[in-house]
Amino acid sequence: MFHKAIEFSNVSKRFDNTGYNAVDHVSLAIEEGEFITILGSSGCGKTTLLKMINRLYEPTEGTIMLFDEDIRGVDAVKLRRRIGYVIQQVGLFPHMKIAENIAIVPNLLKWNKEKIDARVDELLSLVGLEPQAFKKRYPSQLSGGQKQRIGLARALAIDPKIMLLDEPFGAIDAINRMNLQEELLCIHGGLKKTFLFVTHDINEAFKLGTRVIIMNEGRICQIDTPRNIVKNPADDFVTSLITSSRGQGRFWEEFD
Amino acid sequence: MNYSDKLGKALVEHLEIVVITLIISLLLASVLTMFAVCSEKLSKVLIYLFAVIYSIPSLALFALLIPVTGLGKVTAITVLIAYNQYLLLQSFIAGLNEVDPAIIEAATGIGMSNVQILFKVRLPLSKRALFAGVRLAVVSTIGIATIAALINAGGLGNILFDGLRTMNVYKILWGSTLAAGLAIGINALLSKIEKMI
Question: pTM for the full model?
């Protein structure tokens, strides 16, 4: 049996001093264990949609349910501890060692030291970094890709059922990005968590997503598996996205 | 009392005013900063209020307070605390707010409360800016406390103003050299510490 992990009912978000809805009457349901990618150009409302799930933004109207519970009724800090959150800029704490960065929430929850140490090692291995080599370093001693691995480990620390990832690989070079995408798929497969991954890169969205949400101007154009979207694009915007991506493919073929 | 005893007494009085002023100033500024980081509106109101007070010349402010708190140390310390609030609040609030917004967003997103973010993230990351504000307040307090001798608060200003009244060059030199030396010396010391933290 599948559970509904996330459900939006008629959700809109209008920011103060703007004349339009950044997210416009969105309804959708996401089942537990899905890897959903949200694709759209900048300003389409994809990040706003994501940030309403962990209440960094409050919806102007509509309701959001996580596992059949209205998130408005949950204390925002408690809610966020049930949801992992990873952003493009990572936002590691520069004054703390890697181990302290990963253990920040376990520490706030007063886990005992052995449990924290074991968890840090486990998470570092999970994100492909050798625990002994990295635990005692500071964020400034890490490459961009390594930093984002730590960002991922930190978000996974207290085993949230839902992970929100906001263009996590947006600032990472192509090769590292490929590796990180593969590893993220492995992590998702091994953990049975629900992932929501925002990106503006169509290749990334179609490669990672079990289903892809395509957004334009605050509305959802289409939610479906990558294969179905390519087969039956819902509207002109989706068609143009696919056409432009195919155009890039042809550009590369010219070099063969 | 011989000459060096008088100088010593004035120096001790001066330091006493400075230390009491700073302890109360720091406590007050910390509390006000806590409120100010919660509300941007309040932080603007506080800064504006203390900027107005700071713009009043010290002698005028002393004079304004004499009917309330009388001549002496209490008035001097009250005025010095009010001045320090402007210097401290401004640097505290600016320091806490200049922490990279991405770090704050990540901290909020993983479930840290505002108070936890303040103590575990904002404070440690802005400690140098905070300390610079404290140094500024110390040096300014040492300087303005000299003028407080005019309202019977004692301190190094006593020697200086005595000298001026009696046209005693030695007293003028001793008073001004000690006051300036104290400010310069402590500033140099605090600057060193600031680089180490």
Answer: 0.85
